[in-house]
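Q: For a teaching session next week I want to show students how multiple molecules come together into a single three-dimensional assembly. I've collected the sequence lines for a complex. Could you give me the predicted structure tokens for the whole thing so I can convert them for display?
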Amino acid sequence: MPIFASLLFIVIAILFPLFAASAGWHGLLGIVIPCAAWAVFVFGFVWRVVVWARSPVPFRIPVTSGQQRSLSWIKADAAENPSGRWGVALRMFLEVALFRSLFRNTRTDLYKGRPVYGRTKNLWLFGWLFHASFLVILVRHLRLFSEPVVPMADTLAAVDGMFEIGVPTLYLSDLCLLAAAAFLLLRRIVIPRVRYISLAQDYIPLLLVLCIAGSGLLMRHFDKIDLVAVKELASGWICFVPTLPEGLTAVFFVHLFCVSALLVWFPLGKLMHMGGVFLSPTRNLANDSRRRRHVNPWNAPVKVHTYEEYEEEFRNQMKAVGLPVDKE
Amino acid sequence: MSFARIPKPDELIKIGYTPPKTAWQDTPVDFRPGTWSYAGAAKNLTALDLPNPRAWQPSDIDWKLPDNWQAVILEGMKERLEKYRSFRLFMDICVRCGACADKCHFYIGTGDPKNMPVLRAELIRSVYRRYFTAAGRVFGRLAGARDLTVDVLKEWFYYFYQCTECRRCAVFCPYGIDQAEITMVGRELLNLVGCNINWVVEPAANCFRTGNHLGIQPGGIKDMIEFLADDIEDRTGVRVEVPLNRKGAEILFVTPSADYFADPGTYTFMGYLMLFHELGLDYTMSTYASEGGNFGLFTSHEMIKRLNAKIYAEARRLGVKWIIGGECGHMWRVIHQYMDTMNGPADFLEMPVSPITGTRFENARSTKMVHVVEFTADLIRNGKLKLDPSRNDHLRVTFHDSCNPARAMGFFEEPRYVIKETCRHFYEMREDTIREKTFCCGAGAGLGNDENIEMRMRGGMPRAMAVKEVREKHDVNRLACICAIDRATLTTLMEYWVPDVAVMGVHELVGNALVMTGENERLTDLRGTPIRENGDS
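A: Of course. Below is the structure for the complete assembly, covering every listed component.
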């Protein structure tokens, strides 16, 4: 069911800009919606992170995946069980840049009446490719927003297109993103237990990304877009002087509308894992709670059973068996 | 323990992993006998001032909830979203990638999709979306939201008391989402309307009043310990003295009460006593703080603090310098990650320094509490113990990493070092089942009761199968561990899945191997089993 709702959503996300473009609503598609989406994204993202950051971390609860730092002759595992700031930095780097925990993934099967644990790197590989190629594509797009073009965007584009397949050259990142998004989507549909846990909000971002990548490829290789016009539109946004150049195509408006939808979608749901991963208390805290006291800002007194109350109840018995007491 | 009412192992292992045809939101919970725990008795709730004490059972249709139960739960959720970044974040950032799904021992053992950590979390996340997010309020089920109904509450009860807070899923989660945190909050919320299990609240109530889970009064503790000292004398010829409530001792020793109450923990306890005696350690135990374990951890954060407060209070009253803690799993979760924050600062204690080796335990500088295995590993490393590992030659040992010391401390090498120095036949289980990837005994977090026996055998299956493998390959006959709950629950688990493997604490190995001043020739181990076959010398 969620998959059909998601498909319906995507069909609308494609048909609406096609319809609006043919109706001539270029101002809405090219300026109003993208700018509003950007505002929602920035405001929403910041707001969500601020809410998280303002909520306290009462206890030091890292999940330890390696040897603790204890006796001097036992080798501690700094990356998997950090005991200080540098260890945490290393752990977070491995987590954020290389998806360390996902790399650990195993697959459990029952074989001859016994569970067996196989290595599986698919989710890690495609998950990582998805995020890395997305990042590369984002950076490449900086050339549309900068004049002169930031060197990083050009360098990256050169590396990305190094195999020089076709004219204009095919970017590897585009292929990777399409392949990875398709894998992640198919995996959700094909593996029964993953389908069982999937919600509409799990399919929709993947479908949006597929639409964005697909329309992008179309504009680069088939229904070619006038880059000068796009750049004029983009500089209009960032200089707050909205302009509507000639030569923007229907495919471009679909691309832009899906990007806008993704931007609005971002702060509303799970895509916020991008910000949240940095704040996860089981990963970003050092395992040093016996070495340094962690303070809970809302630590409040509780009702306890004192020794005096205890002795009061058991004094006679304690004296009878020869246990010392405070009050005779 | 009777296994009469549950399927035989070869039946139980036939587990299907195909999800049901109905969506999880439309699949009601089934309180099948053998898979849930009895409700908390009213007297125990009353003893702890917990809300809504009454006579009820989870299998009842009417749970006798207070009229405003929904408001209570939602208010409680709001409060906890504001108090715990972990809870709020874990409600928000899960992408349902499913990496955690087949990491849970309860999922592997049941095939029930709601035992996938991701779905266990969705049980509460769906309610969070409905009442605390805009998308959930507007789009309802389409946004993964659902109303908080009695059926949802029953589902929470069934599945949050079918999670042992072992954190294995959190090792594999790309965002470190820890189901233990979610289960802990889930149980706190259930407690607000009086839905808890007796196997948790009774030990907690006992502990609050008498200082230990079993409700043993001071005279009883003294008797039991004397009895174990007799056993030591019987085996070794050496009489050990066990100081209780003694003021002015250097060290307070706190261990789970199961260690002095029930086999096979008692043998571990005998090991501690023999070690401390041989060292001439200036220590005391306490009848008031006579429990290291803390069933508050399975109730609420507030209850953790209420029960844990005794340890520092008693250390202060007795005027000790520092504290040693015995072999226990969840006890060490509390001591390592909560105690100092909740009941510290322990500025009235001193930096822990081993009086025998002079080692400063820098890693316990603030909390001032050292794990007995850290203490012993340091002694052995510095050559302060005379050990005869051949006295453990009749044992072929493997080691079970207990969840909490493994994934909340990273306590891997210390016990292995002590084991390797005290016995000569040690075999590791398969890599995917030890250290940070260790599998739970299936009955931690208060689920080790008899009525829950089928679920325990299912949840413990992955651990048991790993033991079975080393049993077949290396003829292993002992499963060592550093957890009192394990010593009780793994024993049952082994009886069911891998008979002929017994369970022991690491200090039982130490007790067997320790050469004591003035001891008789050891003919048996601490259990009274002959250590050499006839004719061997």
